Amino acid sequence: MKVLVINAGSSSMKYQLLNMEDESVMATGLVERIGEATGKMIYKKFPDTDAEAKVERDDHVPDHRAAMHFVVDMIKDAEYGVIKDMNEVGAIGHRVVHGSDYFKSSVLVDEAVKEVIRKIIPLAPLHNPSAITGVEMAEELIPNVPNVAVFDTVFHQTMPERAFLYAVPRSLYEEQKVRRYGFHGTSHKYVAQQVATLMGKKLEEMNVITVHLGNGCSMAAVKNGKCVDTSMGMTPLAGLMMGTRSGDIDPAVLTYVGEHKNMSVEEIDTMLNKESGLKGICGLNDMRDIHEKAARGDASCKLALEMFSYRIRKYLGAYAVVLGSLDAVVFTAGIGENDDIVRSMVLRDLDCLGIELDLDKNKGRIKASKVISTDASRVKTWVIPTNEELQIARETVAVLKH
To answer: What's the predicted TM-score (pTM) here?
Structure first.
């Protein structure tokens, strides 16, 4: 079966076409800056010869409909296409950021499902509308092909109440759905399954901590194959320090700052999401720039790195206690896969958790799954490149089989 994966953002659309017989990528690309004066369209195909063909265009992309037209046209293009007709596509898998607690698994999309996704737009106002648009464009341009919604929040739906409820009046959960949901679920699930396979075990028999570090960062405690806690909350703002997001903060700070700096709710929200985290401490949110300045002695960049690593270490300790025993720790995503300095700062002196880092194995960017702990380390520590598109495709196939 061929599966088209669509990840529609507010002003972008990422896509991949995969052949699920061998899980190979046939085509992939990105349309970004949708709605701006000049957009960017990228398409790459992967023929059997492994020779890569790439198309890049800078042009106005007025809306998601135009973006989807580009995707469809390129996939079946006479010169660059990888299929002759869109009827060769067996299913379309859509990334949906928020499923609230209405969805416990990925689902086949129908009108009722779309209505629920619309209903929970207030929980993800920047993301869920784009997901609905992606589904509707797929239905219009690729009719008679099933669409499947794969939610970032589903993997974390196995958390018990003690982990997902906040210590606020319960009516806020019952009436407004205020609770911890967690995000990056497809990434956490993918790397948890991968580490079990690589270690020759069943995930249901393992306790794993997964560490997704990109511009957005989150961790998950996975006990016997099920997520029992995660660092992000009702929104992707909670938990670890991130590129521009604050992570955990005393909630009283918000009322204090609002009162003393005369800031509105919207201004505070912008500050926490776009002006905090690494950027708030050192003015930068790209780790490459931060490392460069830190190496030249910049104190604020050194502090940002220490704070970033310290938060991760705290969650590692907390989740090790939550799990009771620990088989593996997995680093993934842009920083997790490519930043050996951050990994070494996080994992130093963790003998108390049974983690012993091998500095030589940890060196440099890691392109393929690799153990970075010593042979004697009781807890195996891995770097495993994430593949959210493949996980979405796998979920899509699984839904159709049922």
So the answer is: 0.92
